[in-house]
Every structure is written in C-alpha cells, then in structure tokens.
Amino acid sequence: MKKDIVNIDNKKIKDIELNESVFCLKTFPDLIHQYIRYQNAKSRQGSHKTKSRSEVNGKAKKPFSQKGTGNARQGSSKPPHFRGGATSMGPVNRDHSFSLNKKEKKLALKSALSSKLSTDNIVFIDSLEIDSHKTKNLNLKLQNFSFTSALFVYASDNINENFKKASSNLPRISSLSHKGLNVKDLLSYEKIFIEEKSIEKIAERLS
Description:
The protein is an alpha/beta fold.
C-alpha cells in the first residue's frame, strides 16, 4: 500500500510503500481491549496495606491468666478485637498485572495501527525538526492539519529539542518514541503523526 509522506506544512514530499502485514490488518476489538486491560493492570500500584498481627505494636505474651479473672481467655494483645490490634483480613501489597504473550501484543498493536490508518487518522511526516522553539510558530504549522488531539511518534532516542519545547505548551499534544508505541496511546489521540524514519523500525518490531 502506498501512502503520502508530507512535511510539517502538510505538503506532499513523496510516496512510501507500507508493510501491509503491519498497517493493513483486520481489526480485532477483543484483542485491543485485552491489551488495554493489560496496560491498565500493570500501571496499578497495589500499595494499599494494613498491618497484620505480626506488625502491630503489642506483646505476644498472654495478657492475663487463663482462669480466675472472669474475662474471656486471650493469648495476645494483638488480635483484631483489641484496641490497637491488627486489621482482620485487610488489604496487603499485591501485583495486579497479568501476562500477555508476545504474539497477542504484536497483533493488538498492528490491529490498532490498521484501524487508525483505515480511518485516515495516521499522518506520515518526513521529519519533526523545526527551526524555532516558539509555540506560536508550531501552532500555525499544525493548523494545516485537522485534529483535536495528536500523538507524534519520533524515530531517534531524543526528539528534536525545538519541537519538544514548542509542543510542550500545546494542549492535547504528546510525543513518544517508536520504541514506546502502545495501543492505549494510539487510541487516546485522534491523529497519529509518524516520522518517516520510524516507519521501518515499527515494521521491524512488529514483523
């Protein structure tokens, strides 16, 4: 499949041949949903916790004699029904994440990319390098495209410094390395701008 490569002014530069096994697949909504559940579960902290009987302050020694006091027998001052005692069956630290195999991850990502491309919401751009760090200048250039939110996927390890500074003040605009491309971000933004150098790298990662 051939697609246009445009510049930051939305003017066509050339054509590019896309890898159909990455950008032209059938959409699998159930797999995309499973991948987003996987991402959300991994981001959960699970750090809420209460103290168990081994952690609360108190003595494990028998507080009073077994018989003769008129009180119910007790073996410690740490049980839940004592003031300052442990919490009964309270929350503990846990890991909410679950596993998803590599084939499912790749297929979900390819499915999300194909879905975005089928609705013309992926723009292939020649470069994110700009001459000025002024937000006003970048905003004028981006008005050549029609979107309410956008994600810019860059190829190198570090994004162009001028683009980073200029885009930091624009609402609903984010940038991400091709290495960190994921389903949740693809679906969270209306338009996806993919730098030309990262197209082949994305195809290599998902092939």
